[in-house]
């Protein structure tokens, strides 16, 4: 698709378990995204996202797969490194110049992609 934005109302989908918004034209995410606390799978790869909303990841208590590769991210919120259920973390092909040096919170992590 060619979505340029997601509606703010997406935050009202409190029971949403999986969201694949990959291969669109997203540049940012609505602040309400932090309310998606039931997400297990989130794919935002192949967009044009340059930054994530404040608190992004804070409520992701069940998230196992987080795919953020092929975007324009230059930094990541610290909350992403506290996701205790996260198994797959895809960050390849962004504009990251450094990454958090404390992975202690990622106790379930099995795969980390940084290419």
Query: Strand arrangement, largest sheet?
Result: 1-2-3-4-5
Order of helices and strands: EEEEE
Number of strands: 5
Shape: globular
Q: What do the pLDDT scores average to? A: 95
| Radius of gyration (Å) | 13 Å
- Could you name the ranges where pLDDT drops below 50 across 5 or more consecutive residues? none
Q: Number of helical runs?
A: 0
Largest sheet: 5 strands, parallel
Give me the oligomer status.
single chain
Strand content: 5-15%
The percent range for helix content is: under 10%
First-residue to last-residue Cα separation: 25 Å
Structural class: mainly beta
Topology:
Layout: E1 18-20, E2 41-43, E3 65-67, E4 88-90, E5 111-113
Parallel strand pairs: 1-2, 2-3, 3-4, 4-5
Describe the structure.
This protein is mostly beta strands and 115 residues long. The chain has strands at 18-20, 41-43, 65-67, 88-90, 111-113. The mean pLDDT is 95.
